Each structure stands twice: as C-alpha cells, then as structure tokens.
Amino acid sequence: MKALTANRLLDGEVVFWNEGRWVEQFSDAQLFDDADPAGEEAVATGKSQPTVIVEPYLIDLTETEAGPVPVSYRERIRALGPTNHPTHGKQAEANAVNAAIAHAEGAARSTGRLDLIRRK
Amino acid sequence: MYRYDEIDREFLADRANEFRLQVGRRLAGEITEDQFKPLRLMNGLYLQLHAYMLRIAVPYGSMDSRQMRALADIARRYDRGYGHFTTRQNIQFNWTKLADAPDMLDALAAVDMHAIQTSGNCIRNTTSDPFAGATAEEVDDPRVWCEVIRQWSTLHPEFSYLPRKFKIAVTAADHDRAAVKVHDIGLILKRGDDGSLGFEVFVGGGQGRTPYVAPSIRKHLPVDQLLSYLEAILRVYNRHGRRDNIYKARIKILVSSLGAEEFTRQVEEEWSKIDVAAANLPDTELARIRAAFAPLPFQALPATSEAFEAAKADPAFARFARNNVRAHKQPGYAVVVVSLKKVGDTPGDASADQMDLVADLAETHSLDDIRVTHEQNLVLPHVKLDAVPTVYAALAAAGLATPNIDLASDIIACPGLDYCALANARAIPVAQDIAARFDDDRADLVGELKIKISGCINACGHHHVGHIGILGVDKKGEEFYQLSLGGSGAEDASLAQILGPAVPANRVADAVDTLVETYLTQRSGEERFLDTFRRVGLAPFKEAVYAEAH
Q: For B335, how many CA atoms within 13 A lie in the half-sphere containing its CB?
C-alpha cells in the first residue's frame, strides 16, 4: 500500500494527496494498492502542479491495528513532526492514526531520502 | 564590533528586495524549482522535512543586543518561538514559510544581518574564538581578521562557485576554541621569532564522509599577506578541486591526493604570480576595520570581587562559577558562558524569551556584546565579576545557567532526522538521553568530556572530533549509532576511532554510560577522558561496551 506525499511550495508543509487535492494530515491521505497505477498517475499530476507542491513521491505503508502507517521512520517523522517538540507539527492534532504512527515499529529506507541522494 | 555603513545597508536592502522578486516569480510559476533552488540557497533558505529552514549568518559568532532582539522577534513572528544555534556559530529557524522569507530578510537587514553565503559552494561564515577580545591568551584580536576575510569573501566573483563549500576558521590563542584544524583553511595567529604577527596556515582539514586534520602548509605568513595567500590557495582549489564527484570535491581531498608538500608548492607558485600589492588589504582599510574592534571601555577594577566570592556560599552558584565562568584579560571581569544545554532541552535551541533575556543581560552587563560558540552555547564576554551573581540569577530563572560547559551534558547535536532532509537518524533525542545520565554531580566527577552527535555522515554535529563521537546511521532502515572515541577539535586535534559495530538507538545512552564507567576505572590522577583514552587505547572501552552483547 502507498500514499503520495510532497511539501507545499508556499510554506514547506508536508502534504498528502487525496482525490485531486492536497491534505495536511496523513489520516486524510488517499491510499493506493501497490499495483494500482493510480499512484503513479497521482505522482504525475503532482509534478504538473509546480506552483503548489515540491518534490512529490510515493511512500510505502504498512498495516497496523489502527490502519496503514508509513513504513519508514523518516516518513513517520514527516507525518507527525519533530520528536523533540511534541506540540509542533501534525502530531499536535490528536487522532487515532497519528497515535498509530507514533507507536509504529519496523522501518525501511525512505523513498524520499533515496530520491534526495539520487538527485545529488 | 564592526558596523555596516550606508553602502552595506543599501546593498542588503536591495538584496532582500531581489529575493522578494525571485520568490514572487517562483510562486507565480515564472521560474521552476530547479531554477529557484540555487537562488533560495544563496539566501540561506533550505527545504527541510517539515518546512523551510532559514540559516542566518552571525559573522564569527558575534552580535549585539539589538541583533539578538531582532532574532527573538523573528522567532516569534515567523517561527514557533525559538531558534537553533549551530556549529558554524550561526542560527537557523526551522519553521520558515517561503512566503515569509523576504520579510524575514528585511527584518534582518534592518539590524545589519543577512543569510548570504550560509549555503552553496562558496566561502561560508568565517568562525572564530568566542572569547575573542576577552581572553588574555590571544596575541591579537582574531575578529579583525575574520572581518577582513568576511569583506573579502562576500560575493567574491572568483570564489562564489567553488567545487564545494568552503569554511575558514581563525583563532589567536594557544587554546583552540574554534576547531581550526578541521576546517578547509584554519588560521592561527602567532608571534614569530622576531615578534611579528603572522598566521600559521592549515589547509585541508574537515569532517564529513572523509575526515582529515589539516596539515600546516606555512608556519608564519605575515599578516599583511593574508588575502593574497588565501587567493592563491583558493585558486589552486578552484582549478583542481573535483567538480565531477560531490564526495571528493572538498579541498581536503585535493590536499590529500596531491600530498601537503605538492599542494603547498602549487600554492606558493600561484602566490608568486599574484600581484600581491593589489591583492592584499591596504593598511588604511586594515586600520578602518581594526578601529571597529578598538579596546572597550573597561573600568579599572580589583582582580577579585567580594560579591563574586561571597556568592559562592551558594553551592549552585559555586558550581556555575567553576564550570561556566572563564578568565578575562581585564582584571575584575569574567567571560560567562550561557548554556543552551539544559538537560531535557534541545542542544543549541533558545526560545525568543531567552534570546531577549540574553540581549538584556548583554546590554546591561556585557558591553552589549554576545557570542555564539561552535559548541552551540552563548557567551557574555565582558561581565564584571561583581555582576556575575546577578547575571547568574537571571540566567538560572530562564533555564540558561546549567553548570555544564565542557562536561558530558554539554553535547553538540545537529538537528538530525527531526528536521533535516539529509539525516539518516535523529541526534536530538540521543543527546537528551545521554544528558539525562549526567544531570547531577556525576558530570563534575567525570570532568571534561565532549560528546558530539551527527545524524548523518555530513558530520554537522562534529562527531569525528568528539571525545565520544556518535554517528547516526541507517541500518536496513533502522536508526543505529556508530560510536567513536578519542577525537578532538581543540589544539590537540585528532580524529576519533570507531569503537565497533553500531548499536541501536535504545542502547546508545547505556553504551556511553559504560564508556564513562570504564574511563573512571582506568583514570589516572586528573586525566581527562581523552587523555585516558590516548593512554590506554580502544581495547578496554571496546571490551566493556561489547561484553554486554555477548
């Protein structure tokens, strides 16, 4: 399962794709099956919106009891906010999905980080 | 301190306005992200994990109360009420909005500050001894030469597109508080045998993926030859530095591959071709700059202070006096180090209220002078001994008087994966876990222990020169930490040696505990951790840390 993420151009806010719009909370993100071409189509749509967002990419998700959460801890930090300031970032909004992300374990390399290295 | 003139101010206003137009064009879609990115980086604006980050230059870590208050105001208006002081003696704001960045640059320009050359492959902010102008150890005021370099290197047309970023540090004291030997160029001001002032020139130091302690390529460069010699070094680098491979592009790789002797020969040959009279700073210009660092109006005071000594009856003050107060060249004055390492807080972070307080204290008690250290603390460099108890009380009330300078809880930590797009692992929580183990008399018992943590191989947290260095690595996607021992960024510079396999995040503080306990067992007399390590080597430490794993 995957979700599409990017940073909003205007303020750098982490955003997620949902049916044609960008939302701030991972809990509102649209989820794509791994084999679903809609994920890549959403990436292409994201890339066609350069005045709205920067650097769109798909992230891998893993199932938890509270639903899918990002696999990589880098993406979990992006989805919540910095761990040294629990009131900063999206984690300030208490919801079940954010709680699940905060308690998620297991990890994998972030596609965002790999993209960054590739671009260098 | 050095003051901008009208031309400087006009330029800064123009530059901020130019960036406003560039941002406008980007938001309107007139330029692409690829076109815009180098423009924003030239103005210190990065895109990080959660937001943009604006890195602001604090030239050689020196500012006045007006500037500190402006930073506090920026923290409140445009960020989330705090800023992060860095190992380049700069400050970063982690929650910048692109749309606000031009206003932030305007606010900075209003107090003679900017974010130029805090990113990009140019000569970055020159760093220096945070005790400059206050310590009796120095042979000259290094800020004079930092300012000379700042003016020379700012927007230097030949050196704005180097193979890679370029960092210079200057000190003038035997005790190196500026880590000069792990810089691209490190300059140590010294008196020659004939009494003349000169620089010992070190080139090709650095940390990152491939760390080096810089070799000395000239023992005594007459000070009036500085700029032409820097030009020769930069030209050799600009010509032969590896532009084809980002990982081999720093000057340290060039110096290492050519060998210090051949590199020196090429620099000297280049220098011989330069019109040094034209390249060096005219005496009149040097005098103008030096005048900005004229002796301060110190009062004639007794060398000791009854108020200061009496306050030591309070054990908490006595501990602060022992650990955070340093000798001043002027009798009756002291250098006060303001700790940004309160246990539980983020190393290097200061809230807007704390910045305002430091500004107030500087204005009232430190001749309006504030310094940022590369170890992510602040300094009030000129406090009367009589006033230290008052300053201490104010700092303590604001959580800024943790008596831990140079001790185990005075940890350098980069922003790491909590903020940085390049990081592999977090650094801040690791620093907090370790510091919590030393929030008592134990830190004093252990003595000087420099722990430095980086969240990736770029080494912004200086882990290569930590007595204990900690590097966050991505091990199959998990946060692991590689420990290394025996590094030093001081006058006895050395690179830390890797202890063994990386340990998981939840074992780092335990491992540091074990290292410290091993040191206490092995310690002879008053040896520092570093001295004990150098005497006994890696083996007992390695054995102790990894014994638990078997």
A: 25
Average pLDDT score, chain A: 90
Beta strand pairing status for B185-191 and B168-171?
Answer: parallel
CB B352 within 8 A of CB B84: no
List phi, psi (to 5°) of B390: -65, -45
Q: What is the pLDDT of residue B478?
A: 86
The beta strand positions in B64-180, using DSSP E, are 82-85, 91-96, 127-128, 168-171
Q: A10, B99: Cβ pair inside 8 Å? A: yes
Strand partners, B503: B481
The residue of chain B nearest to residue A79, with distances taken between CA atoms, is B50
The arrangement of strands across the sheet holding B45-47 comes to B45-47, B52-56, B91-96, B82-85, B349-351
Pairwise CB contact (< 8 Å): B428 & A83: yes
Token representation of residue A25: 């909370």
List the structure tokens of B323: 């650990």
Nearest CA in chain A to B28: A51
Distant-in-sequence, close-in-space partners of B265: CB < 8 Å, separation ≥ 6: none
Q: Of B350, B336, B346, whose CA–CA distance to B72 is shortest?
A: B350
Domains in chain B, start-ordered, CATH in brackets?
Answer: 6-109 (3.90.480.20), 142-291 (3.30.413.10), 306-397 (3.90.480.20), 412-547 (3.30.413.10)
Q: Is the pLDDT of residue A120 over 60?
A: no
Question: Which two structure tokens, joined as six digits, stand for A99?
Answer: 């709680």
- H or E stretch covering B392: helix B388-397
Pick from A12, A82, A108: which is nearest to B52 by CB?
A12
In the A/B pair of chains, how many CB contacts fall below 8 A? 88
Could you identify the residue written with the tokens 């009279």? B277
pLDDT digits (tens, 9 = 90+) for A30-57: 999 999 999 999 999 999 999 999 999 9
Q: What is the pTM of this model?
A: 0.96
Tens-digit pLDDT profile for residues B49-76: 999 999 999 999 999 999 999 999 999 9
Give the bridge partners for B190, in sequence order: B198
- Per-residue model confidence as pLDDT tens digits over A61-118: 999 888 899 999 999 999 999 999 999 999 998 888 888 898 887 665 666 666 655 5
Nearest chain B Cα to A71, which residue? B477
Q: Which of B183, B194, B212, B154 is nearest to B494 (CA)?
A: B212
